[in-house]
């Protein structure tokens, strides 16, 4: 009886440690699953949609871990890395790479570009200490607008990449012409009990998460975490605070640059122009939903938060469409946006709580 009582106490204590945002989103997700099954959807269909968005979004969420751990906060300037990844893919396609060679070469070029941009962004964050989260979103907006001009004047004339009329690249470049669509998604994928497992995407996600977990157990990773927890103590211990923050932002930006390659192949096309503008907000919301704070973030926060948040977004549209069939489809998208942005708004309020 004592063991049973102790087990109940431990379970209660464990549940109490789970942040309210995680429990609320998880509850809403389960309720939507139940509603979807009640409306005639197969649960495997809903879970497959959840896993699909998890696979293409998880790397973006992972990019927030280094910046949070270093004390610069969640990376609202994620578009910096994303536009570098887009530039890498555009250049690699223009050079004639296709299929797996496109994925591999794009990943290498994107990481190099992202690291270089991350170095400059890290220097900027060091120059505006204390105002990182105010400056970062505008930096992301500015780089997106700048690259909007780049996509118009870049000297690429590939018939499947340029606009049909006029100069500049298309808003969406289909990857099927280059045999590069769904490469990771369809690699060793299989279906079990109706649940589609995109093995390639999930392997990339879990490999990236494992490497991030391993990095924060190295000397450099521990130094970055120390800087984020207590920069004065870290400086007194001989750690170069500014250098650690720059390294963290280099990694964050490089991961985001790689993440857009996973994202693009998962949907089958490359999106340019204003596409990166607001991608940081769902990624930041995901990691907060997973239980991260403004100073502490773990890989488990990435995995849990991305699955719950993106899974909720994935199943909300079809379930609401079926439930509100008599009302009309026009109301479905606004409801979906209210759900999504409401979760983002609550997740962003956790920044101040974490700061306390």
Question: What's the SSE blueprint?
Answer:
Layout: H1 2-17, H2 20-38, H3 43-62, H4 64-70, H5 78-94, H6 99-127, H7 132-153, E1 172-174, H8 183-186, E2 190-192, E3 195-197, H9 199-215, H10 219-229, H11 231-236, H12 241-267, E4 269-271, H13 280-289, H14 299-323, H15 332-355
Antiparallel strand pairs: 1-4, 2-3
Mind explaining what this structure looks like?
By secondary structure, the protein is mainly alpha-helical. The protein has helices at 2-17, 20-38, 43-62, 64-70, 78-94, 99-127, 132-153, 183-186, 199-215, 219-229, 231-236, 241-267, 280-289, 299-323, 332-355; strands at 172-174, 190-192, 195-197, 269-271. It has one domain: Orthogonal Bundle (ABC transporter involved in vitamin B12 uptake, BtuC). It is 71% helix and 3% strand. It has a two-stranded antiparallel sheet. A two-stranded antiparallel sheet has the order 2-3. Helix 3 (43-62) packs across helix 14, helix 5 packs antiparallel against helix 6 and helix 10 packs across helix 12. The longest helix is centred in the first third of the chain and has 29 residues, at 99-127. 45% of the residues are buried.
């Amino acid at each position: 009886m004592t063991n049973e009582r102790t087990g109940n106490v431990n379970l209660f204590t464990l549940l109490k440690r789970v942040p309210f945002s995680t429990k609320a989103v998880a509850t809403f997700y389960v309720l939507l699953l139940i509603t979807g099954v009640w409306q005639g959807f197969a649960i495997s269909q809903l879970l497959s949609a959840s896993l699909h968005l998890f696979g293409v979004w998880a790397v973006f969420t992972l990019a927030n871990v280094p910046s949070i751990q270093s004390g610069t906060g969640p990376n609202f300037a994620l578009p910096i890395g994303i536009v570098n990844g887009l530039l890498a893919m555009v250049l690699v396609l223009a050079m004639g790479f296709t299929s797996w060679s496109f994925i591999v070469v794009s990943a290498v070029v994107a990481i190099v570009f992202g690291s270089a941009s991350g170095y400059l962004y890290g220097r900027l964050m060091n120059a505006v200490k204390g105002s990182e989260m105010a400056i970062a979103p505008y930096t992301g907006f500015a780089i997106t607008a700048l690259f909007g001009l780049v996509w118009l004047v870049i000297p690429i004339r590939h018939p499947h990449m340029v606009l049909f009329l006029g100069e500049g690249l298309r808003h969406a470049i289909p990857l099927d012409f280059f045999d590069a669509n769904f490469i990771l998604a369809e690699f060793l994928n299989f279906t079990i009990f109706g649940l589609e497992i995109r093995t390639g995407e999930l392997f990339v996600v879990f490999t990236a998460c494992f490497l991030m977990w391993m990095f924060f157990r190295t000397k450099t990773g521990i130094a970055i975490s120390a800087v984020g927890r207590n920069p004065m103590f870290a400086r007194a211990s001989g750690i170069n605070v500014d250098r650690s923050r720059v390294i963290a932002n280099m990694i964050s930006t490089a991961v985001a640059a790689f993440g857009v390659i996973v994202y693009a192949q998962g949907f089958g096309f490359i999106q340019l122009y204003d596409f990166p503008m607001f991608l940081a907000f769902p990624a930041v919301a995901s990691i907060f939903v997973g239980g991260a704070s403004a100073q502490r973030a773990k890989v488990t926060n990435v995995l849990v938060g991305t699955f719950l948040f993106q899974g909720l977004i994935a199943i909300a549209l079809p379930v609401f469409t079926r439930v509100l069939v008599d009302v009309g489809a026009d109301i479905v998208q606004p409801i979906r946006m209210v759900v999504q942005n409401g979760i983002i708004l609550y997740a962003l309020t956790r920044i101040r709580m974490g700061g306390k």
